[in-house]
Specification:
Blueprint: E1 2-7, E2 24-31, E3 36-43, H1 48-51, E4 54-57, E5 59-62, E6 77-82, E7 85-93, H2 100-122, H3 133-140, H4 148-156, H5 158-168, E8 172-173, E9 176-177, H6 182-193, H7 195-203, H8 207-210, H9 213-222
Antiparallel strand pairs: 1-4, 1-7, 2-3, 3-5, 6-7, 8-9
Helix pairs in contact: 4-5, 4-6, 6-7, 6-9
């Protein structure tokens, strides 16, 4: 029997106490009507610390043969304890439960990580970087999802950044110019390299690109 566990955020606050990192946890379940408490175990393939405040335990079982095992069936919901304190709630199920709240929570975590990455890169405001050309070529690929990386690489090696832009954005695909981050990238080129070098870069582009409506609109956006 599997279980969906909701950990109490007031107890596991991420500072004074972290979510458990162990893959086998022993806790207690209390039955008020029987005036009994029994030790119960959760077994995880992925630890709660890696899963988050909503964790899936792949196995739930009593430690004693005398425990009321018949309660361990789908839909059974119970609070579990650490000493006298309730530290979470558990819902038993046969198949994996997917809830919209899980998706929302994961999106929030991804957005937070993206924000932290952006702040980290923005804080690197000196030129004392340790890198190789191959590393910059690898890094620039992530500009499609993290546009600020383009500006970062542009400041270090303009040739790698401009080559990436030319190959992955300033190309024709079914007569449609790849455009998503194009206005921002063009703005960064003018901002970092200056208008004179920006104009030279634009001048060297093929005529079919310069006359493309999407490209023209992108230029208009930054003027």
């Amino acid at each position: 029997m599997k279980s969906l566990i909701h950990w109490d955020k007031n107890i596991f606050d991420g500072e004074k106490r972290l979510l458990p990192s162990a893959k086998v946890l022993h806790t207690q379940i209390h039955f008020p009507e029987l005036n009994e408490a029994w030790s119960i175990a959760f077994k995880f393939n992925i630890s709660p610390r890696d899963q988050g405040y909503r964790s899936i335990a792949d196995e739930v079982f009593f430690l004693s043969e005398k425990a009321p095992k018949d309660v361990l069936k789908e839909g059974f919901k119970f609070s579990f304890l650490d000493g006298a304190n309730v530290i979470g709630e558990c819902l038993l199920f046969e198949e994996k439960i997917i809830e919209i709240e899980d998706i929302i929570e994961r999106i929030k975590l991804i957005d937070q990580e993206k924000h932290e990455l952006k702040m980290f890169i923005a804080s690197m405001n000196n030129n004392s970087y340790s890198y190789t050309t191959d590393e910059l070529y690898e890094l620039i690929k992530y500009s499609i999802d993290y546009p600020y990386i383009f500006s970062f690489v542009l400041n270090i090696d303009k040739n790698i950044a401009l080559e990436y832009l030319s190959k992955h954005y300033l190309v024709k695909l079914n007569n449609v110019l790849e455009s998503s981050n194009l206005p921002l990238f063009l703005f960064n080129i003018e901002k970092v390299l200056g208008k004179e070098e920006f104009d030279k870069f634009i001048e060297k582009l093929p005529k079919e690109i310069k006359e493309n409506e999407i490209f023209i609109n992108s230029i208009d956006e930054i003027l």
